[in-house]
UniProtKB/TrEMBL annotation:
Official protein name in the record: Glycosyl hydrolase family 67 C-terminal domain-containing protein
Residues that span the membrane, as ranges: 745-765, 804-821, 827-847, 854-875, 895-916, 928-956, 984-1003
Alphabetical list of SUPFAM superfamilies matching this protein: (Trans)glycosidases
Residues spanning the signal sequence: 1-28
Top-level taxon of the source organism: Bacteria
InterPro entries from the UniProt entry: GH
Record keywords: Membrane, Signal, Transmembrane, Transmembrane helix
Keyword Transmembrane helix annotated: yes
Amino acid sequence: MTTARRRGILAAVTAIVLLAMGTGIAFAAGDALGIRTEPATQMQPAAPVVAVAAEAVAPPEITAVDVPDTVRVNVAMDELLGAVADASERAGAAALTVALADDGPGETADGYTLEGDAAALTIRADTEAGATRGIYDLAAQVRAAQPVTELVGEHAASRLPLRMSDLGAVGVIPDPAEWESGDNYSHASDAFAAVVQPEPPYIDKTALAAAYEDFDGFLRHSLANGINAVAFPGFVEYVTFDDVPGGAVYAEGDDHRDKALALREAFAPFWERADELGVKVFLRTDMLALTGPLERYLVDRFGSLDTENPDFWNVYAAGLDELYDAVPALDGVLIRIGEAGPVYDVGGWDYYSALEVTTVDAVRTMLEALTAQAEASDREVIFRTWSVGVGAVGDMHTNDASYEAVLDGIDSPALIVSTKYTLGDFYTWLPLNHTLEQGAQRRIVEFQSRREFENFGAFPNDLGPQYQAALQQLLAANDRIEGVWVWTQDGGPWRAGPMSLYLKSGFWQLYELNTQLAAALAQDPETDVAEVTTDWARQWFSDDPATVQAIAEAMTLSRDAIAQGMYIEQFADQRVFAIGLEPPPMMWIFEWDILTGDSAVLDVLYAIVRDSAIEAGTDGVDAAIADGAQAVAAVEKMQELVTGTDAATWHSADMRDAFVGTLEYELDTLRLLEAYRAMILHQGEWHDTLSPESHAAWDADRAAYETLAATHLERYEGNLDYPAFNLTAAQLGVDRATRDLTMAWLARGLLVLAIAWVVIGMVAARTRLVARPGAAAARATWIASTRPWRARESTLGMLELDRWLLLVVPAALLVATRAVQTSFLSWTHLAVTIGAWVLFALVLRLFLWRRSPWPVIAAVGGVVMLRCILTLFALSFTGPGGYWFAFWTEPVLRTIYIAVAFALFVWVFVAAGWALAAQVRARRATGFVLAAVGAGLLVPAAAVGALGLEAALTVWNDEMGLLPWGLARILGITTYLEIPDATAWAAAGFGALLLVVGVALALPWSRRRAHRAAETAPADAAR
């Protein structure tokens, strides 16, 4: 067998191996992406109905009171008397008696009986809880302008005894300056920021007194709504850790200890006031909760943050013992393990959280230790299943098997497991969370009043039918459910949306409805939710039956407006899986108020919408666009109903203005979203079908969207009550999309030129073209790229012009291809890519020194040409947008492309080494290539590491638009994708290793060989 044949066979085998490796990588990439869908079983709430709005009934003046003289009863009476005083008029007089039994079944048994008539009412109850509930029910009836005598009769104890809320906006100052930018996505509430000071004595007494009044008002309001527990932020802030097994955590003189004592002394009266009013207090904390000295103590003692070590958790248990001994009013601790980090930390304070409880063993060890402490101290531990994809327990919130793996066998009577009622976060279209139907543990169900993902409660959003259907189904399936947790304010960033703070500022009355609904359903799951909505309308807006009826009817339309206007149903009603996670149903708004413009979300969204037509028998794109119009029509009807009411019938002109204003805001926003959905869906349709009609429709939609976007920003940007959506990411997507057709034509032109160059190279030797300028260079690149062992002979005798064309043509094509691939918008991508190639080339040139560089230039340049042709072909259909569309949505095309692209990429270095081997033999040629590759990897990776991987990826992604723009601003790309921060430095280290190994292989290993190389170099250079 001839040498040429052996080399040809070796090259073919190498190509096959590289293609096989590329195919394996393509399958691995597809598996890592893991993009798939499955049908989701939607909740089936009853259709919303409108309760008949009866005439308002004036309450009687309460002229005689005979009630127990206790703090709880007196506060309840304050609410009742306040409700009567706030009524527009009163009719008659009544006496109220509360007869409280001396011994009852327990503090939480709140059943009561109301006897008497309009002139004399008597509440009989076995417990103080029952007596106060009766008083609060009378107050609610008065505020709803309904006859108090309707309550006469027996009232069973509440179905769910534990009804907890967050802390609302207690301690949060409504400072407009903090909301003006609209892009503060911190999840820290900054509650009590004015109270807690960085220097001794650490507490501002004036601010503390104001916060206490704030808290007392919140408790009174919550009790009137039926709430009897509160989650209070903090834990390690109040602990000195003096009595920890193994020695105190804080050294003598450490101000962390002094701060803990000061904060505990400051907030103990808050907790004691809640206890006095019959409200349980649970300290709400992430785990791990840390301070700098505490983290150092744990690492020094246990070698790391070893959360699977039982002794590790004894440190935290000792802290809880300390707190409960110091403040007996505390009832327990509420723990979350699934979210932590800087987005939740308060700047300037050495109290922070870390995602460290990520394994099944760690969670079980934590719960076993803390529930044992709770049992011994007669307290409770509320554990949230909100693990959001982190670690081995990442799907505990939505996966039955994971829930059992974590919690099976942990049956402490002190443990309560808290879970959101939806199978994911608080989004519409998510199924009911079936994990709430399992487990031997006590359970509570989480609800959110101020729906963070539905514009922070700024739009009307009556969740009554959904809450009722969810709670009734869950209670029928699991008799261990004993409570709810109602979020009145919390969830998501505090200062990125409207400045609506519960009981303080903005139109908080709008989402107060959902708080009242959740509490009422917890007391009685059979509650008439339509009547609750009507009562809410009477309480806050009007006594007039026609006005109340109009508002209630408008609220029945509110869910359809949200579900169709803020979601794309064909996408939202599927369970979508990607990169090992389950993205939420509202991915086109990522998240809260950021209208996304990235290809990953929008291309997959389009594909799911398109495929929905298979089962529905309709055009998925047309149906989705029609849904947007339906949502707009619903808001127009709501607006017609509310504006059609008599302004004189409203309690307050300000309340009417707020309602009318929020509907105008919703209508403007949903019209904007309607145009945007049409634009992105037609854009995907063009990439999918190559239809000129789809491109024309996209262009018309784009013009409509840009007009509406300009109007929306002009009208609402800077508005604290109705803030404009963040359209930055959407505009970046539009900017890229408008270049797609131009880039496609540029790619086609470059593709023709590149193919012409290759064809000339293929045929030049057999035609008279070989004598033409450049033909020899084209021939050399073709030969050297496909048979690199002939690279040296292919460049012999070339003219100077041809030699320079060997370098310039591939280099120019590479730069042009990368520029087109990024739509001339990502200079970062271009700089890193071209910079790496330049470093590769420079290192090779230095190693070659006086040897001829043209053989390796021909080999590398030729393969680069082939690699660029592949990319240009993919770009030539509908530009970079079409390139990425195929990547995200077409597995077969993605696999083929990655396999060939990888094979060609590696072949560059194989060809380079083969071409060099003719000059310096195989070992040194391998060294030259490895060193060049190492340098090309080392420098860019080190630059990225120095800049910071997260920062570098953010800049790159902003320019490329592959992943949601908001991802970096909210969660962090590296955090979300679980990319270690040290990845860039690891790559730099690997590059350095390649460089060192390459240099070692490149050096002459004997004086004889070095002498021979020195003798042959001048002759080689002369060629």
